[in-house]
Amino acid sequence: MRYQDFYDIGRDQPATASYANPNLLKNRYGNIVAYDAGRVKLSQIGDDPSTDYINASWVDAYKQPNGYIASQGPVPNSFLDFWRMVWEQNACTIVMVTHEVEKGRIKCHRYWPDPTSTPPTQTLSYGDVTVTHLRAEAHRHFVVRTFLVRCNSEERTVKQFAYTSWPDHGVPLTTAELLGFRNAVNAGTPNKDVPIVIHCSAGVGRTGTYIAIDTLVKQCLDMGGMPNVDAVVRDMRLRRNYMVQTEVCIGNVPNPDI
Q1: What percentage of the chain exceeds 70 in pLDDT?
Q2: Complete domains list, the chain, with CATH
Q3: Nearest one of 202, 178, 155, 185 to 252, comparing CA atoms
Q4: Tell me, what DSSP letter sits at residue 45?
Q5: Alpha-carbon gap, residue 140 to 86, rounded angstroms
Q6: What is residue 257's predicted lDDT score, i.e. its pLDDT?
Q7: Pick from 95, 71, 73, 78: which is nearest to 164 by CA?
Q8: Under a CB-based contact definition with an 8 Å cutoff, are residues 113 and 121 in contact?
Q9: Distance between CA 207 and CA 141 in Å, rounded?
Q10: 145 in helix, strand or coil?
Q11: Distance between CA 157 and CA 143 in Å, rounded?
Q12: Cβ atoms within 10 A of the Cβ of 195, count?
């Protein structure tokens, strides 16, 4: 299929929560929404129904319903919601496929404590969730940050894999770079039964491309032969608008040669 053939898939679905007045400042972009049928719902706080909202959508993984959470890059008004989502969904892996700033524009606000920031912060609290930065490991194309996340009397380890070689509205120089990153993410995810949280800036373009590649590789390993790229992209677009956002991104979703 051509990029134009994907454009309207799924876009007739309602997204009333995304457009509700109390939630507008929780959205990074006005045209990127979470469809009502597939949005991730947080536990409601008190009598306020808007507290169950975050701009994030469930996406099926290969043979794993709701195996991914496709999220926008958190904005300051959604930091608390983001970490609450990570905690409530038992996620242990966050995949970040954007820089914080690209071409002078903020693409994703720093939603984690960072001892290298100004001022340095080792621990931050987001509502009932406390996040402590334990360490950061730099690799050629990505950084792995490890956090200790606490809520009430429980604590868990969460890793953030931040890809550093993806230009905005472009693609990595080679598929091998992204496949290597994908392999590192999967090897570093101890619990395969919980969703992986994936975000870029809007949570659709690079996020969708990463999910498509991970899905296609798993299909190839399981079934052999050439997987159906069009079907994978179509299914994602039924869950979140604009997934695999541009023609360039769709053209670079590979039929992986395993």
Answers
A1: 88
A2: 3-251 (3.90.190.10)
A3: 178
A4: B
A5: 27
A6: 45
A7: 95
A8: yes
A9: 17
A10: strand
A11: 16
A12: 24
Cis bond before residue 119 (omega within 30° of 0): yes
pLDDT at 10: 73
Average pLDDT over residues 6-11: 74
CA atoms of 221 and 210, how far apart (whole Å): 17
- What pLDDT, in 10s, does the model give residues 127-158? 999 999 999 999 999 999 999 999 999 999 99
Q: Is the pLDDT of residue 256 over 60?
A: no
CA distances from 39 to 18, 106, 185, 186 (A): 9, 25, 24, 24
Are 83 and 131 in contact by the 8 Å Cβ rule? The answer is yes
Q: Beta strand 64-71 with 154-163: parallel, antiparallel or unpaired?
A: unpaired
Which structure tokens are listed for 196?
């992986």
What are the backbone dihedrals phi and psi of residue 112, each rounded to the nearest 5 degrees, phi first? -130, 155
The Cβ of residue 80 has, within 10 Å, a number of other Cβ atoms equal to 19
> If pLDDT is split at 50, 70 and 90, which confidence band does 113 have?
very high
Answer positive or negative: Cα dihedral of 258, 234, 56, 111.
positive
Contact yes or no for 82/71 (Cβ under 8 A)? yes
Looking up tokens 């590789």, which residue turns up? 217
Contact present, 24 and 6 (Cβ < 8 Å)? no
- DSSP label of 247: H
- pLDDT confidence bin for 2, thresholds 50/70/90: low
Residue 48's DSSP bridge partners are 45
Q: Terminus-to-terminus CA distance in the chain, angstroms?
A: 23
- The neighbour count for residue 187, using CB atoms within 10 Å, is 8
- 3-class state of residue 236 by DSSP: helix
